[in-house]
Amino acid sequence: MRATMDGNAIFKVEDLNLWYGNTHALKNINMEIAQNQVTAVIGPSGCGKSTFVKTLNRMVETVPSVHTSGDIKYRNQGIFDSNYLVEELRTHVGMVFQKPNPFPKSIYENVAYGPKIHGIKKKQVLDEIVEKSLKGAAIWEEVKDRLHENAYGLSGGQQQRICIARCLAVEPDVILMDEPTSALDPISTLKVEELIRELKKEYTIVIVTHNMQQAARISDKTAFFLNGEVIEMDDTDKLFSNPEDKRTEDYITGRFG
Ligand SMILES: Nc1ncnc2c1ncn2[C@@H]1O[C@H](COP(=O)(O)OP(=O)(O)OP(=O)(O)O)[C@@H](O)[C@H]1O
């Protein structure tokens, strides 16, 4: 497997294996994820894409049967180290899911929720965070006059951008996205893709996608997973135009998956 790296690695994944009970879902993964880049994770259903990204913020451990071996370093800190709090990791490494999942609260409360949990109480400070986060998620103009309406009243694409704003409000370093546009219509999808391109100036993004055109449009690096292994990781242009491994070529040309 090739894993070229330019720029600083924010994550270093070393000999990572993960099992759900007896199911060996991730196999000997070695990978570096570069800062301020978009890394796409592609591969057929069940190959371990979601499991992999959910391991980066230890969200996968909500499944009781999970066990892992190997290591993941986030900014040179071992994320499995007993003295590293998972809550701290998740503050730095936020996540956006496949289906928009706003809370049944106002738009404002959805975005202010994380900062409030982190102890911010002053209304003026919260107001500023909410505005900045909604602007960062490219939805401020659409919602600024209805901040106190329930987020459920928004379209799916708007809800997904509220979820991105909710993630930005706690000032993460990395944003993990697990098929964030698969439940959206084409126009909302393009808006979220534009947003991802904008966000990478300030954040590092790892995105799972089923959609190879999407990976080609928005990512700098692409990792192709198959049966829990990384078959190939490279610059996105190179991986899609001139893959090194026959299995990558077969997948990207639609021969399977
Ligand atoms: N909660 C779980 N308990 C047991 N096995 C699981 C669990 N979640 C995933 N798996 C198994 O781990 C493997 C990888 O699944 P994962 O969801 O990571 O794949 P994926 O590539 O994201 O798939 P998809 O594209 O269909 O979402 C599969 O064999 C799956 O059945």
UniProtKB/TrEMBL annotation:
It is a peripheral membrane protein. Pfam families: ABC_tran (PF00005). This is Phosphate ABC transporter ATP-binding protein. It is found in: Cell inner membrane. Coiled coil: none annotated. One of its GO terms (molecular function) is ATP hydrolysis activity. InterPro entries: AAA+_ATPase, ABC_transporter-like_ATP-bd, ABC_transporter-like_CS, P-loop_NTPase, PstB-like. Residues 11-252 form the ABC transporter domain. The lineage of its organism: Bacteria, Bacillati, Bacillota, Bacilli, Bacillales. Keywords: ATP-binding, Cell membrane, Membrane, Nucleotide-binding, Phosphate transport, Translocase, Transport. Part of the ABC transporter complex PstSACB involved in phosphate import. Responsible for energy coupling to the transport system. GO terms for biological process: phosphate ion transmembrane transport. One of its GO terms (cellular component) is plasma membrane. It comes from Planococcus lenghuensis.
